[in-house]
């Protein structure tokens, strides 16, 4: 069915299609519209789920963990400081190998208080064991949320998945949305270690030094295995529904001399910058990274000049995406810090980053000096 929807409502529409048994959530700007819409679906009977209105984000994740541990499908959503409040429990969700799906509406962290887009909230969770995908359109938000359940619940994965949308820039923008009847695309959930009163066992007990590292390795092994599951899921989605995705979105990279790398809506804005630069005779391309965990193979950047735009920062170290790219490719990049706290970044600005690139340096957009 074709309609017009916001990114937030697209996520809610996807949740309605997948039918989780339990949804537990607490509102926070700019995520609130997601859980409001899900609650309306439950109230109207369009979604046969148990909706738990909890007193905090920490409790929302705890409720999802409690439900998921019984072997049922679960969903939640949050943003910014809500995600930080969940942090203790996001570690438990991954460590318990629970396929919870969460939409995170990317928002800056305080102080000072800021409700606009930034990726630092989700990137502070990158080491917890959650898979992370970053989307750039309303349609992609819907499709990625549906696929997230199938990926998370796959027996070779059994890890939680976070679907990330830029606050306001995507969460509240209106774009066309084509909803689906997914049929058997999402198979019934099966959690092999679900609580079973007929076969009681200890769960989450003290783990000694002789075993704990094995649990850590098992999470890493499953994240590595998830790459194949993600590829297979996206291939099957394309076959059934005609929309194709990948770990990255490549735009004119094959013959490019310089490639712009970004995530989320900045990755889409970069495509317009590429068109502008190409008219000027600059052989530019853009690579929008969709999956941050597992981190994609970026071998196509080898031998290219690379401009990385980070809507985030690791104080004392640099742009998080740029740092990860350098670690994998061993290539110098031009690191641009732009869009923090919703700072406006246009395609003309991005084209300017390329024109004035200084490989091996870092630029804070609006601060003006290479540092």
Give an account of the 3D structure.
The chain is an alpha/beta fold. The chain has two domains: 2-241, Rossmann fold, CATH 3.40.50; 248-364, Rossmann fold (3-Layer(aba) Sandwich). Helices cover 38% and strands 19% of the residues. A seven-stranded mixed β-sheet has the order 3-2-4-5-7-6-12, with helices on both faces. Strands 9-11-10-13-14-15 form a six-stranded mixed β-sheet, sandwiched between helices. The protein is globular and about 70 Å long.
Features:
alpha/beta, 371 residues, 19% strand, six-stranded mixed β-sheet, 10 helices, seven-stranded mixed β-sheet, Rossmann fold
Write a concise synopsis of the structure shown.
Helices cover 38% and strands 19% of the residues. The protein has 371 residues and is of the alpha/beta class. It has two domains: 2-241, Rossmann fold; 248-364, Rossmann fold, CATH 3.40.50.920.
Radius of gyration from the alpha-carbon trace, in angstroms: 20 Å
Beta percentage is: 15-25%
Query: Can you give the helix content as a percent range?
Result: 25-40%
CATH superfamily of the largest domain: Thiamin diphosphate (ThDP)-binding fold, Pyr/PP domains
Helix and strand content put the structural class at alpha/beta
Low-pLDDT stretches: none
Strand arrangement within the widest β-sheet reads 3-2-4-5-7-6-12
């Amino acid at each position: 069915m074709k309609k017009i929807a916001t990114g937030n409502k697209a996520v809610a529409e996807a949740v309605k299609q997948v039918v989780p048994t339990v949804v537990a959530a607490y509102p926070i700007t700019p995520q609130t519209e997601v859980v409001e819409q899900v609650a309306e679906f439950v109230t109207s009977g369009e979604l046969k789920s148990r909706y738990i209105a909890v007193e905090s984000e920490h409790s929302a994740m705890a409720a999802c963990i409690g439900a998921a541990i019984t072997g049922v499908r679960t969903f939640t959503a949050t943003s910014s400081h809500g995600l930080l409040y969940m942090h203790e429990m996001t570690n438990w969700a991954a460590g318990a190998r629970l396929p919870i799906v969460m939409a995170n509406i990317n928002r800056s962290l305080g102080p000072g208080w800021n409700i606009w887009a930034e990726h630092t909230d989700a990137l502070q969770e990158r080491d917890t064991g959650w898979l992370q995908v970053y989307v750039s359109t309303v349609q992609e938000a819907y499709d990625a949320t549906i696929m997230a359940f199938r990926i998370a619940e796959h027996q070779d994965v059994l890890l939680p998945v976070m679907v990330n949308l830029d606050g306001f820039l995507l969460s509240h923008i209106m774009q066309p949305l084509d909803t689906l009847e997914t049929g058997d695309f999402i198979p019934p959930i099966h959690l092999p270690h679900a609580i079973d009163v007929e076969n009681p066992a200890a769960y989450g007990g003290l783990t000694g030094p002789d075993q704990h590292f094995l649990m850590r390795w098992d999470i890493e092994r499953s994240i590595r295995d998830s790459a194949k599951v993600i590829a297979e899921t996206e291939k099957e989605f394309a076959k059934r529904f005609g929309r194709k995705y990948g770990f990255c979105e490549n735009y004119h990279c094959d013959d490019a001399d310089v490639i712009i790398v970004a995530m989320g809506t900045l990755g889409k804005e970069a495509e317009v910058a590429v068109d502008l630069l190409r008219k000027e005779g600059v052989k530019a391309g853009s690579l929008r990274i969709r999956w941050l965990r597992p981190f994609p193979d970026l071998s196509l950047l080898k031998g290219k000049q690379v401009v990385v735009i980070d809507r985030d920062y690791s104080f004392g170290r640099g742009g998080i995406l740029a740092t990860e790219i350098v670690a994998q490719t061993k290539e110098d990049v031009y690191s641009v810090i732009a869009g923090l706290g919703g700072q406006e970044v246009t395609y003309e600005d991005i084209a300017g980053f390329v024109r004035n690139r200084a490989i091996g340096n870092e630029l804070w957009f609006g601060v003006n000096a290479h540092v």
